Amino acid sequence: MDEHYDYVILGTGVTECVLSALLSVDGKKVLHMDRNQYYGGEGASLNLTQLWEKFRPGQEVPKDIGRDRDYAVDLIPKFLMANGELTKMLVHTDVTRYLEFKQLAASYVYRDGRIAKVPATEMEAVRSQLMGLFEKRRAKKFFEFIQNWKDDDPATHQGQDLDSSPMTKIFDYFGLEAGTRDFIGHAMALYLDDSYMTRPARETYDRIMLYTSSVARYGKSPYIYPLYGLGELPQGFARLSAIYGGTYMLDKTIDKIVVDDSGKFVGVRSGDETVKADALIGDPTYFQNLPVGGKNLVRETAKVVRAICLLKHPVPNTDNADSVQLIIPQNQVGRKHDIYVASLSSNHNVVPRDLHLAIVSTIVETDKPELELRPGLDLLGPIHEKFISLTPLLEPIEGGSESKIFITRSPDATSHVETINEEVHDVWRRATGGKKLDLKKRSDEEGAQVQA
Fold first, then answer.
1. What's the predicted TM-score (pTM) here?
2. Cα–Cα–Cα angle for 235, 238, 241, nearest 5°?
3. How does pLDDT run across 109-151, given as a tens digit for each residue?
4. Spatial distance between the Cα atoms of 411 and 389, rounded to a whole number of angstroms
5. Distance CA 97, CA 123 (A)
6. HSE value, Cβ hemisphere, 13 Å, CA-based, for 353
7. Strand pairing category for 247-249 and 30-33
8. Which pLDDT value is given to residue 448?
9. What is the third-level CATH fold of 4-99+226-301+395-451?
10. Could you give a GO molecular-function term held by this entry (predicted)?
11. d(CA 62, CA 64)
12. Domain topology for 106-219
């Protein structure tokens, strides 16, 4: 390998493939390598044989649950917001031409021992089972305030200031109960914890508006999902990268990250070949057991426990929905972290017609990880097959500006991609010397192809 590249990228997760495509479109010379034979890295979509090989090696696959081609099971399920950043990236880069999306049927939240649909409008709030009569009125006023807010019209502000007031003050102004704050903050604004309460309310306002505008785009729910699994996303971005000159190499061992005496990146050695480049972007698992220049570049911050469940029925109490995003806010079950349930069906081409797929995930807090999923698993009814995984959450120890080694963070426990969006922007800024990622707007007609 005598060629010199601007960037070498290790791993074909969604974050890495998005960055590869964006850099290629930006005119950079990119080489993308992965140790696996398939795209997606830690977040690949597996067929039936691959699923058994990963979780039950040596065991025979049952004959009564369909064929390999009927399955595309996400190891890390993520839904896209219809008006979210990643959807904009898909449109901006034309990756939508390779993918087809289907809308999720509904978004649910757990409160007071039962689940209910997340209201996205003032009228849904009035009909919601989540709240009593008086709380519905208060919630209706809150949503009307959010929907009617105009920065240049003080008459819509009701004396509030989104930029200087913390979100808790806005909640207090409308007198909202703790449970209502839970579903607004965690199931609509999609926060991972309650620290947003003390930050300026503008941030939460923007997130709620993203949720409601995403619902308005296609109706029913704010989420869309690629047919044949999330593994289609990195493949779509990889195809785009290749069109713009990017080179992909799968099934390549990564034996050493080569640096000079000062610790600055020089190249990547695979077997007896070394490829050289100006900078490296990498999935953190490539650095987990591979010290660079004698020092570790990643650290473990937590672990995520996930249960992949095959069901013979839809998730109970969801009106037989073919697909559901269900969030169990931390406060509702006495935890520090939310529990996420992602449910899909054959309508998304991920399981056979008579099965449903449900994946439950959360951040580990105790020495009995599987028990921590119990609040989510208990909502699923009888489980036909269950596969448990425990994966570390890794993050870079340094930003990479001196070493020119820019490491991404592990995908988190959430079942939506908003945290991946933040990661793409962060790594882009670090890897391009502070350059802002600018996504040109295209017309709505050029949006993602979505089946209602």
1. 0.89
2. 160
3. 999 899 998 875 667 767 778 888 888 889 889 999 999 999 9
4. 14
5. 36
6. 0
7. parallel
8. 56
9. FAD/NAD(P)-binding domain (3.50.50)
10. Rab GDP-dissociation inhibitor activity
11. 6
12. Guanine Nucleotide Dissociation Inhibitor; domain 1 (1.10.405)
